[in-house]
Write a structure and sequence with these properties.
alpha+beta, six-stranded mixed β-sheet, 14% strand, globular, transmembrane helix, transport
């Protein structure tokens, strides 16, 4: 086969005349170009390392300092106060150099030391500036003099507490006796074991770059033994109202090309860091393992493996796995060429190998059986080579035979099916261990499924936003819906991976599929696209959109379950090096007081006052979480230390075992400049979602789009008689309307909120 010949650099045969060496010119060219490409990347990385190594100065500033020092010397002044002369005396080669040359070398050495000292001083100043967080607690539109000075400076240079906050957070969820018991446990912990655990944690904080992140990745993600599918992985959706092309292969061609353009920018360190208030940079550490990464199963704990730039992807279609190279002769294939290769896979009628079709179910089931099967059946031979190919690929692609999106006469139901397909598919047609997998449906729709251990949703969302925008607004399609450009028909065909699956392994695949299918069947999902109003109207009420949505969720949950629950909202902590997330406990005494007042029919003015208090409290908690003053990651790390020391803490054990029955997360739009919400409002993503955290709870992801839309992704389990995703979605919709009616400046209520709600329903 032609592909096999291209895979080796040379061939030889033994003849009567000796050894006949036949060099493969194309293979050697590929090796040469691969080496050139590798050295180019090394040079770019070296250049970036030099630039970042001297930050906040620049390499050119060294030359400026040297010239300035030399200029002062020629004016017969000594800015070094005798240090240049001292350096000149101790030059090891002073005998072989002229006096003038010695003076120049000494001045250059002094200039370099001065330059390094200036860099060190500027870094200390910048560190102190970025440690200032008071700006986050000030109202929008109002800025103190201190904060103004701080912003200008940044742009120019570029335990008792935890326990008390915890007790405050559980007060609305406990009665008096339960609260008194938890207070006693907390007091005992503070006065005894807590101080000892805190000492170890302080020691780690001095030694490690981040005292939370490594343990968070290890114990929350990698040591989890339950399936990744639904429980850990999350998804992102395509545009809601448009499909750029109905041709499956063309959509794949453009977006796969866009993914690799993003990787190129990432490797060249051209991705701009996310700035808060256009001044404070957030840590970009999580971006490092975006591509060429896979989670590897283990019996006790998994690991995350990251390789250097792969020049191929792995594509799954109708039970077969294909290796598709996206580089040819050192260049990235054009979108039209990738479409051509994808179409070749779609047209391939070869059957899957025995046991191959549902092999991916191993990544969807429990981790220990997968780890054991991997060690026993994929440790050598053809199976190891094919598995290595999948795990080392840049990312994973699924060509799905189904059609998804807003379809038919029931677009809401079709959106729900779309979400479930992205989250779990058929339970065997995704590779859930890959850092991310991209799904292309038969009608041109697409979506992404991401593994959670290596990064959080905003990182994947950044990649997804870039890919969607590049696909439609930069690359585009021709009149027939195909990718633009020409095709080199001599491209080698995608290579089908081979497998030798033993009957024992097939049995394990079947068992894993049974586990995964039960999990998928139990998942109840609803996508609520709320278009009645958005953040524009909320802001006119002088309320934070996030606080508004969180209060609506509290109201909806209370109406749905007639009680309050421990509520999780994810907040990013990327203001700190290697920071990931912290928990905002959204159910507070203030929010529960507001909900009770509203449901109890209190006067509208009273409800508005309580709402303002609750939303301000929520914003305060969010700011505390972002600035490292949250409580849950601190308590988690104290618990880990206690386990290392082999000591038991009744307080920590109870805190860490509390269920999050309402788990929420907002994914912000990060690259607004990539989309034109005015002229092309239809080109908006529907956001993404995740599965429920508790068996008897809800998972709610929301995506605030422009000024007039909020998308909710609601998940729960059919097996729980107390949860229903569609009913909860209806409660969310009703709560949003009730809150905006309460807060709208033009609203005039007669006396009671209950009466106004009745009038509002009649108007609808």
């Amino acid at each position: 086969m032609a592909e096999a010949h291209q895979a080796v650099a040379f061939q030889f045969t033994v003849t009567p005349e000796g050894i006949d060496l036949q060099l493969s010119h194309q293979a050697l060219t590929e090796i040469y170009l691969s080496g050139v490409r590798s050295w180019k990347k090394r040079i770019i990385r070296l250049k970036n390392s030099v630039i970042t190594g001297v930050y906040p100065a620049s390499p050119s500033s060294w030359l400026f300092v040297v010239i300035a020092i030399l200029a002062t010397m020629y004016t017969r002044s000594d800015p070094s106060m005798g240090l240049i002369a001292k350096i000149q005396e101790h030059l090891p080669v002073s005998q072989s150099m002229s006096t003038q040359c010695q003076a120049v070398v000494s001045a250059v050495l002094f200039s370099t030391m001065l330059w390094l000292l200036l860099i060190f001083t500027m870094r200390l100043c910048l560190k102190q500036l970025l440690s200032y967080h008071r700006w986050m607690f000030e109202q929008h539109g109002k800025m103190s003099t201190t904060t103004k000075v701080w912003v200008v400076s940044v742009v120019f240079t570029l335990f008792n507490y935890t326990c008390s906050l915890y007790l405050e957070s559980v007060r609305p969820l406990t009665d008096d006796s339960q609260y008194e018991r938890m207070t006693q446990l907390a007091t005992e912990f503070e006065s005894s074991l807590g101080n000892r655990l805190q000492w170890y944690l302080k020691l780690k904080a001095l030694w490690a770059s981040n005292y939370v992140s490594d343990w968070w990745e290890e114990y929350v993600y990698l040591r989890g033994r339950s399936p990744l599918m639904v429980n850990s992985n999350y998804y992102g959706m395509d545009f809601l109202y448009v499909t750029p092309t109905p041709i499956q292969a063309a959509r794949a061609g453009n977006s796969i090309h866009a993914f690799f353009l993003y990787r190129r920018k990432l490797n060249r360190e051209e991705i701009k860091p996310w700035l808060l208030r256009s001044a404070v940079p957030c840590c970009s550490y999580q971006f490092e393992r975006m591509f060429d990464t896979c989670r590897i199963p283990g019996t006790l704990t998994d690991s995350v493996q990251h390789w250097q730039d792969s020049d191929y992807i792995v594509v799954y279609h109708r039970g077969r796995y294909f290796r598709l190279r996206v580089y040819q002769a050192g260049r990235l294939l054009s979108p039209r060429e990738i479409e051509f290769q994808i179409q070749r896979i779609l047209d391939d009628t070869s059957p899957p190998s025995k046991g191959e079709a549902k092999l991916g179910a191993l990544t969807a089931g429990d981790r220990i059986p997968w780890a054991q099967a991997r060690k026993k059946h994929f440790g050598s031979g053809v199976n190891k080579r094919s598995l290595d190919c999948i795990e080392r690929a840049a990312f994973f692609v699924t060509l799905d035979d189904d059609e998804q999106g807003m379809l038919g006469d029931d677009p809401e139901a079709s959106l729900d099916r779309y979400a479930k397909s992205l989250l779990h598919g058929k339970c065997y047609d995704r590779w859930f261990d890959k850092s991310f997998s991209v799904v292309y449906f038969k009608n041109g729709k697409t979506g992404i499924n991401a593994e959670h251990s290596w990064a959080d949703a905003p990182v994947v969302a950044h990649l997804w936003e870039y890919t969607l925008a590049t696909d439609c607004f930069q690359l585009g399609y021709n009149a027939e819906g195909h990718c633009k450009g020409e095709v080199d028909s001599s491209l080698p065909r995608p290579q089908k991976l081979n497998w030798e699956i033993a009957p024992e392994c097939e049995e394990q695949i079947s068992q894993s599929l049974t586990v995964a299918q039960a999990l998928a069947d139990d998942l109840d999902f609803h996508v609520l696209s709320f278009k009645d109003f958005g953040k524009g109207r909320v802001k006119r009420c002088r309320v934070s959109p996030d606080a508004f949505v969180q209060m609506a969720l509290q109201l909806a949950y209370y109406r749905n379950r007639r009680t309050f629950c421990l509520t999780y909202e994810a907040s990013m902590t990327r203001l700190f090096r290697e920071g990931r997330t912290e928990t905002v406990r959204s159910c507070t005494s203030e929010s529960s007081a507001f909900v009770r007042a509203l449901e109890g029919g209190e006067a509208a003015e009273v409800c508005r006052r309580l709402f303002r208090s609750a939303s301000e409290k929520h914003q305060q908690l969010y700011r505390l979480a972002m600035t490292g003053a949250g409580i849950d990651r601190h308590l988690f790390c104290l618990y880990v230390v206690s386990k290392y020391l082999g000591v038991e803490s009744p307080f920590l054990k109870e805190v860490l075992s509390e269920p999050w029955r309402l788990s929420t997360s907002q994914t912000p739009v990060q690259q607004v400049e990539l989309f034109d919400m005015v002229n092309h409002p239809e080109y908006i993503s529907c956001g993404g979602g995740f599965g429920p955290v508790a068996d008897d709870g809800y998972g709610v992801s929301y995506y605030v789009l422009g000024d007039s839309m909020i998308n909710f992704h609601i998940s729960c389990k059919h097996s729980c008689p107390d949860t229903d995703a569609h009913k909860f979605g209806a409660e969310i919709r009703k709560a949003l309307h009730d809150l905006i009616q309460l807060l709208s400046p033009s609203h005039r209520e007669p006396s009671k909120v209950g009466e106004s709600r009745h009038e509002f329903k009649k108007d609808l």
